[in-house]
């Protein structure tokens, strides 16, 4: 007898519940800012990716409103039929100029960007070598291709070189890495990875979701941080959420990349174009970060303070180099309990366990932003001290 939909749903949910992995997301009752309301409680927010505080910034909202009024609520079609508005083209030119690349193409999300670019570039007979801790969107994007796939040890140029040496091909060779790794907060050793890739004629593909708006001059990203902005053998993709505060994804690189993508990338070809208000807000975000360096200055001042104080208290932050600051609690239940206790003290910080992170490395992932005040961070640190001591994580 076939399995019914009801039985399948019930069994899957029961399995998640029994393993302690069933998610019940908390609900924000106000805009996503450094201080907000979650499930009716006023909290300091350490859970969002809103690095520069742009998600509710009045400059972004004003330009979004202006584009909404002039261009309408939606684009009305996929871009290859009747959905490419002049503002889409203008923003892609603005983005390519910001990234110092030959072209840029905007897609609906960072996730679909990886599916679109990898699916477009890679063919049977090609070789792709991917960092073992790359984002799920890269993993899923690679599953859609017929290229030979190999995985190198995390941030290890020597293991990358071994795999490139052992798996030669006449096809395209692609080395794929996150720029900033979203769970540990470390930065890929891009200078060394590109050096290895070039020795074997490989192109380097950088997913800079957590590096854009955070690293490099004016937040241009990890590739700029390492001085490789105009290299044609380095391809950048990423999200237009996180630091940019809105939504979407982008691919930036070789001058011909955009033209191939708009002819072949399935997420681009079969999805309605971004709404005008989104384009307006994104355009304002790029203008704002370049005209006012204080956003990135505050982000990094807050990051340094928060990390140093957590270390002084005795917490393990895994040597994170970026505003992503994990605090290790060991087993998943300890991290979840710490998250519950922090929330009771007015701190919104989410616990993460297996399979999101390895067993024994359950943590709370904190992200400080440019919008946090010193009072916000001191309140969070005081709560961390009390919760950490109560659970025996620190003495």
From TrEMBL:
<feature type="modified residue" description="N6-(pyridoxal phosphate)lysine">
    <location>
        <position position="242"/>
    </location>
</feature>
<dbReference type="InterPro" id="IPR004839">
    <property type="entry name" value="Aminotransferase_I/II_large"/>
</dbReference>
<dbReference type="InterPro" id="IPR015421">
    <property type="entry name" value="PyrdxlP-dep_Trfase_major"/>
</dbReference>
<keyword id="KW-0663">Pyridoxal phosphate</keyword>
<keyword id="KW-0012">Acyltransferase</keyword>
<dbReference type="GO" id="GO:0030170">
    <property type="term" value="F:pyridoxal phosphate binding"/>
</dbReference>
<dbReference type="Pfam" id="PF00155">
    <property type="entry name" value="Aminotran_1_2"/>
</dbReference>
<dbReference type="InterPro" id="IPR001917">
    <property type="entry name" value="Aminotrans_II_pyridoxalP_BS"/>
</dbReference>
<keyword id="KW-0093">Biotin biosynthesis</keyword>
<dbReference type="InterPro" id="IPR015424">
    <property type="entry name" value="PyrdxlP-dep_Trfase"/>
</dbReference>
<comment type="subunit">
    <text>Homodimer.</text>
</comment>
<dbReference type="InterPro" id="IPR010962">
    <property type="entry name" value="AONS_Archaea/Firmicutes"/>
</dbReference>
<dbReference type="InterPro" id="IPR015422">
    <property type="entry name" value="PyrdxlP-dep_Trfase_small"/>
</dbReference>
<dbReference type="InterPro" id="IPR004723">
    <property type="entry name" value="AONS_Archaea/Proteobacteria"/>
</dbReference>
<dbReference type="GO" id="GO:0009102">
    <property type="term" value="P:biotin biosynthetic process"/>
</dbReference>
<comment type="function">
    <text>Catalyzes the decarboxylative condensation of pimeloyl-[acyl-carrier protein] and L-alanine to produce 8-amino-7-oxononanoate (AON), [acyl-carrier protein], and carbon dioxide.</text>
</comment>
<feature type="domain" description="Aminotransferase class I/classII large">
    <location>
        <begin position="42"/>
        <end position="382"/>
    </location>
</feature>
<comment type="pathway">
    <text>Cofactor biosynthesis; biotin biosynthesis.</text>
</comment>
<comment type="similarity">
    <text>Belongs to the class-II pyridoxal-phosphate-dependent aminotransferase family. BioF subfamily.</text>
</comment>
<dbReference type="GO" id="GO:0008710">
    <property type="term" value="F:8-amino-7-oxononanoate synthase activity"/>
</dbReference>
<protein>
    <recommendedName>
        <fullName>8-amino-7-ketopelargonate synthase</fullName>
        <ecNumber>2.3.1.47</ecNumber>
    </recommendedName>
</protein>
<dbReference type="InterPro" id="IPR050087">
    <property type="entry name" value="AON_synthase_class-II"/>
</dbReference>
<keyword id="KW-0808">Transferase</keyword>
